[in-house]
Fold:
Amino acid sequence: MGLTNKSTGTGILEKELKIDKTTPNDKIIALGGNPNVGKSTVFNNLTGLNQHTGNWPGKTVTNAQGNYFYKNNNFILVDIPGTYSLMANSVEEEIARDFICFGNPDITVIVVDATCLERNLNLVIQTLEITPKVVVCVNLMDEAERKGISINLKELSKHLGVPVVGTSAVKAKSLNELMDAVSDVASNKITPNTINIVYEELIEKAISKVEDEVKPLLQDRLNPRWVALKLIDGDKTLIASMNKYLDMNLTEEDALMSQIHEARAFLNAEGIDSDVFRDKIVSHLVMTAEKVSSMVVSFKNENYNDRDRKIDKYLTSKKFGFPLMIFLLSVVFWITITGANVPSAMLADGLFWIEDKLTLFFTSLGTPPWVHGLLVTGVYRTLAWVVSVMLPPMAIFFPLFTLLEDLGYLPRVAFNLDNYFKKACACGKQALTMCMGFGCNAAGIIGCRIIDSPRERLMAIITNNFVPCNGRFPTLIAVITMFFAGAIAGPFQSVVSALILTGVIILGVVMTLTISKILSKTLLKGIPSTFTLELPPYRKPQIGKVIVRSIFDRTLFVLGRAVVVAAPAGLVIWTMANIYIGDLSILTHCANFFDPFARLIGLDGYILMAFILGFPANEIVIPIMIMCYMSAGSMLELDSLAQLRDLLVSNGWTSLTAVCVMLFSLMHWPCATACLTIKKETQSFKWMLISFLVPTITGIVICFIVANTVRFIGLI
Amino acid sequence: MNHYDIPLSALPLGEKCKVKKLISDGSIRRRMLDLGLIDDTIVEALQQSPSGDPVAYLIRGAVIALRREVASMILVEAL
Structure:
């Protein structure tokens, strides 16, 4: 759900590695680390930029940058993708490596997880092979302490040969020490004396052969020993990147090429073919990490992870795994629905009171009726509806969901559901991108970058829209409350609403799996690829921070976008409703045009038009429907869901219409932002079109079947 | 290969083992190595997904879920 103006398009540097310095004294800091080590939190605390963080691996899917002013120096922080290694096995690893190699960082900070140091050291050691200008930030020291893990930072620094600073990123104070170390290394006050990674003799011989040849070519731009190692390994991505960023085509250097060839022949003769070579390199790095770790880490209690295992025994067990998942989802919805009722009504009261005052004001000014109509009944009223219907559920749902995310529950959802995704020939991480889709489908689509296989990524992108985003939740909640839960009195009403909403979401998940399966048998044929899913330790979320962050970072952003779209939409609708051609307004003409088709799928012309006009943002679908009905009918005051229900019923809504509206809301075209994001992510108009058509056709077919079955049986 | 070796996928839950051999190549092998699955690494089978697959393993302090197909390409010696 990482939805900010950054994740939806602007300010992202991806392929372009050049960072613009404002003054030549600016220092560039590359911030790297394994996924899910609190790297983004460190980044946020330093820059104040609210890049969204969550407790699941692979959250930072693109580079973000921000500034930090410390002791009269401006530091430009660049958040590089979280990776376990820099061997360019995936796109993220390639981006991370390329930035460290070619982005000219003055210093690279590697953030590591204190509770899992050994695994994290692998990346540190790989980075040290590339550059000595490194500071290691051992994050989550507080978590480690709680688990009885202690780390001798001094000793670690001695072994690695670079400064090591312990932080708990949730406490911003500990970051000063980090910045001191960074300043010192960046300004060359400390000369790192890094750990020597020495491979076995035969490999060292091969490396030195190539190193001598490549050194003069590199002119100090890269570490020749490391480049030599990669060249022998046959890393084509490095050669391509050197060509791209250094304008250096190594394949044309005949002397070098023959030296590499010779080195490989030499190794081969000794029984070290390319696979064995890679094994030996990686094994050596892993063993070095193990050795260093064993010298600096001590455990008070060997079973420090027992608590997590116990929680997992419930949350992912055969008996409780699924029921608990559905229960948690329902609870989140229940709190959202119950909590949103009162503020929604209050907001509506307040905003419509203002409308009355505005009307009086316009009357007193003596402006022509159309000015008042356009601005107050058109623009203002639509805005008021968007705010009062959308804001409360969002402001409650976002923080709740973020809490689940920060706790580390979402990867468990992926773990629980994985087998179904496997059967649909999809990637289990698709469950994570679906979760991101709850916030915003555009963010979910960008999140699909965590899926490595291009086929599976496309499947996740195309089906992401089957998860209702925050723009569609309030529509669903409003319809459920009006038509299905309204009859039940008392506290059970919101329980029933929450259960129905949960059912809708489950339907969305089932559709995702079904369509994925169909896609993998037709357009995107293939077998599921291998992937690994990390289940990170559970963490205590920072509740205060979560609330502030989700309200400012997400709620207001999403609402702002909706408002920007709603104002002109209100203007258009009012105009269409008040310009007549013949006896009927343009609005009615349009609605009549859509009506026959809309009836076929259980809707009516106005509803279908509201969905079409809601293309820029789903948030405005319900407000547009209301505007349409109100301009066509005579009702003027509308300040509760009960009155809204009356308005809808008087316009021919039945419970079948309500069901079809919900189904169509769940399954129709992605909004404009999502479409643009798909275009950008897939680099293809064709896949954007398919992503548009798949949910649309699915929705039309399902609504058609439901509407006509019900009519045929004669239920309604 | 030792005749005591079994695929990791056959390791009962709650049991520990030692990695003996990876029978994969290319990118899968690299991924396995990145996880730290080198010879003699201790792996513990923790928990099975309620949908039957994958299984979560404790590998070098991290909990990693592996699908059956992947786990069957890792030969281990039960401890």
In short: The mean pLDDT of chain B is 90. The first helix of chain B runs from residue 26 to 34. Chain B touches chain A at residues 25, 27-31, 33-36, 38-39, 41, 46-54, 56, 58, 60-67, 69-70 (CB under 8 Å). Helices of chain B lie at 26-34, 68-71.
